[in-house]
Amino acid sequence: MPTTRELPVPDGLAGERVDAALARLLGLTRTAVADLADAGGVRLDGRAVAKGDRLRAGAWLEVELPDPPSAAVPPPAELVEGLRVVHDDDDLVVVDKPVGVAAHPSPGWTGPTVVGGLAAAGYGVATSGAAERQGIVHRLDVGTSGLMVVAKSEYAYSRLKQAFRDRTVEKIYHALVQGHPDPLTGTIDAPIGRHPTADYKWAVVAGGKPSVTHYEVIEAFRGASLAEVHLETGRTHQIRVHFSALHHPCVGDLTYGADPTLATRLGLTRQWLHAVRLGFTHPGSEQWVEFTSDYPADLARALELVEAG
Asked: Order of strands, edge to edge, in the sheet holding 47-48?
């Protein structure tokens, strides 16, 4: 039986087409959303809408999602365009994940995954973990690009999972945020949990899980700042939620309150957020290893436009 998700239309998506908006909100492809709409599975304030209809701020969306494939039988592996292998050895593989790719299959996601891309390219990964996310020791959002490590051996899986639990992994991101955070260097220590009224979002809430983000503004521009961010914890959407709570959302992050006009001017269809550096003690050699990633083309271009004023 299909499941129904109900959610309000965020102000930042008012006026957008149904297929484009729901692709962002739910992590689906526009084609998948179009198919749902054609089947009558998307309703706005109780009325079925077509893929090209426009959303209204404050209206209530209902989306019928089909049941995900069985977790025991992952979908067929397909080569993933733009997924680049940065390092490969007997214990692990480090990849540079492009935007629009999930770490692993999940309910409602029909797009490409790191797990599937590696399998299609002939990389074997650890069998530890649930069937659909074997080898995965940490994740990046679909809309966030950058570095991920995937375990290939069972030993590496165990050691890397423990390293993430012990917070000994160095995870460095660059984020272009709206405005100028004050102070320019600081720590955001605020608990994160499910948003009280929107189940597709997370928020700073009393009783949430402890969440700590360290940041330093490395360059300030007119109306925006480029920050280097070090995650001490690894909650879902942590950087996005914490900067939104400071009223400095990541540029382009309409889900968490970013200015849609600025996103359009910069040509962004996702949050300006990139995992630029990843460091950890290699489970095999016991030596510290570190990897870096350049900004992808869409983020580099947006940064150039911000720098130009």
From this structure: 3-8, 60-65, 42-44, 47-48
* Residue 286 three-state SS: coil
Residue 74 pLDDT level (bands cut at 50, 70, 90): very low
CB 25 within 8 A of CB 255: yes
CA 17 to mean position of chain CA atoms: 22
10 Å CB burial of residue 13 (0-12, 13-18, 19+) is buried
* DSSP-assigned letter for residue 168: -
Q: What is the pLDDT of residue 70?
A: 43
Strands 202-204, 212-221: parallel, antiparallel or unpaired by DSSP? unpaired
> Would you say 145 and 274 are in contact if contact means Cβ atoms under 8 Å apart?
yes
Neighbours of 152 (CB within 10 A): 20
How many Å apart are CA 38 and CA 51, to the nearest integer? 7
pLDDT of residue 245: 96
Catalytic residues: 141
Q: Are 270 and 281 in contact (CB under 8 A)?
A: no
Neighbouring residues of 239: CB distance < 8 A, sequence distance ≥ 6: 173, 175, 213, 229, 231, 250, 273
* C-alpha–C-alpha distance, residues 255 and 91, integer Å: 37
Residue 68 has pLDDT above 60, yes or no: no
